[in-house]
Amino acid sequence: MNGQDVVNGLLAGIRDAGAFIDDAQVHLAHPFETLTVEGYFGGPLTQLAEAFPDLERRDTIRMEGVDGHNQLWVGVCGYYCGTFAAPFLDIPPTRRMAVMRYHEFYRIQDGKVAEMQALWDIPELMIQAGAWPMGPSLGREWHVPGPALQDGLRIEGDGARALQIVGDMLGRLHHSAEGEEAMRLPDYWHENASWYGPSGIGTCRGIKGFRAHHQIPFLNAMPNRRGLIEQGHFLAQGNYVGFTAWPGMEMTLSGDGWLGIAPSGQVITMRSLDFWRIEDGKIAENWVLVDLLHAWHQLGVDVLARMRQLA
Fold it and tell me: Are 169 and 282 in contact (CB under 8 A)?
């Protein structure tokens, strides 16, 4: 049984705790954090199912690969959907169709899930409920689509070339202090690439949109950001690359411009789980979820409490 077979069996019923080893750890977005298997199924998933009685999950990308630590991982991208009928984390229900994106990565060991790292775009539900407690997004807020080629569930082939392109691109990003030319974005990104960020940042279109609506504000606010690549996990298959780490970045909020947050000099870490699709040797699409609630929490701001006041 390969990694995707294991995860497919888990996802088919959404609540199959038997697919995990007994002492597996589940790392989930703030405010849930690190849970036992029992805590995950009896906590967040139960709460979500109670809020969405007709809950469905719809995968748009499903891939697997062996990372640099010789570990087998499966990455899944998609969204939960259904009738938002009851509060979830005190987010008021819309009593209409609602969606919440997820990025989930599963480490497979001896035919079972030994570790899960996952982000849910909880702020996306706040937007749909009209209870938005953070600053306005610079990008476009909408229902993020799956791959343009509709091939995310039938990925095949060696991902070595795709992994090299993404790895080289990330390496050039560390040259940001030397100016825009040093990063050579046109070498790695299609001019009309779509960057699908989390709710609170939004979607950016093309290299110009990516720089204006995400990269420049991000770098201005945290110029010393450092990727914790050595403790992360890259997997590649076909034209797709996935990355997960817990956390994946470390930085000091020393400048202005990101999410409207005033610079505090506070050192924070960031969880960012990514999927990239390569087309004609360049990045055509990038799905990104960032645990923004966790970032704010480290800065001393309880976003959920502020949302409750609004609601």
Answer: no
Report whether 80 contacts 53 (CB < 8 A): no
Instruction: Give the pTM.
Output: 0.94
Strand arrangement, sheet containing 249-253: 226-227, 249-253, 266-270
CB-based burial, 56-86: b 16+ in 10 Å, e otherwise = ebebbbbbbbebeeeebbbbbbbbbbbbbbe
CA dist., res. 214 & res. 208, Å (int): 10
Q: pLDDT tens, position by position, for the chain (311 residues)?
A: 466 665 565 555 445 667 899 999 999 999 999 999 999 999 999 999 999 999 999 999 999 999 999 999 999 999 999 999 999 999 999 999 999 999 999 999 998 999 999 999 999 999 999 999 999 999 999 999 999 999 999 999 999 999 999 999 998 876 565 556 667 999 999 999 999 999 999 999 999 999 999 999 998 999 898 888 888 999 999 999 999 999 999 999 999 878 888 899 999 999 999 999 999 999 999 999 999 999 999 999 999 999 999 98
243 forms bridges with which residues in the sheet? Answer: 234, 274
Domains of the chain from N-terminus onward? 3-129 (3.10.450.50), 160-310 (3.10.450.50)
